[in-house]
Hints:
The protein is about 5% helix and about 35% strand. The chain is mainly β and about 160 residues long. The two termini are about 30 Å apart.
Amino acid sequence: MAATAWQLYNTSKRYIGNGTITLGAGSFKMALARTSSNASTFTLSTFGSITAQISATGGYVSGGKELVPATGQWTTGASATQMKFTYSTVGLTFTASGASLTNVRYAVITHGASAAVASARKLLCFCQLSSTQFTVTSPNTLTVLPAATGVFTLT
């Protein structure tokens, strides 16, 4: 399965710029969505606008799984006046326990207060995990491991 690069939602750029989303701080979650989901629609802004999240079975919890605190780092780009920001996090494993995780195609990263209602969480980015949907049968695992260079880089 060849995953695509993580892609930022249009509104997440604004949220980063105005401080609504602070990269490297706060609560980040990763959720899984089906082929029929609109997760790849760049104009979405909150998790409540995502359709067709996978079913909350087999150990998957609606709204996704908490990511280990993400990190953000500013570095000098091609010239001393060009700065770039790299957002990174460790991989996350979803284990199908007692039932399969069915029709998986997208992973979505959201941001919000840890106790925030899932639908109110702000969308950050998404990744198409495969060109077609797939199923993780019990007791297998799905590990979503971002690239060593980070989830994304803003320049």
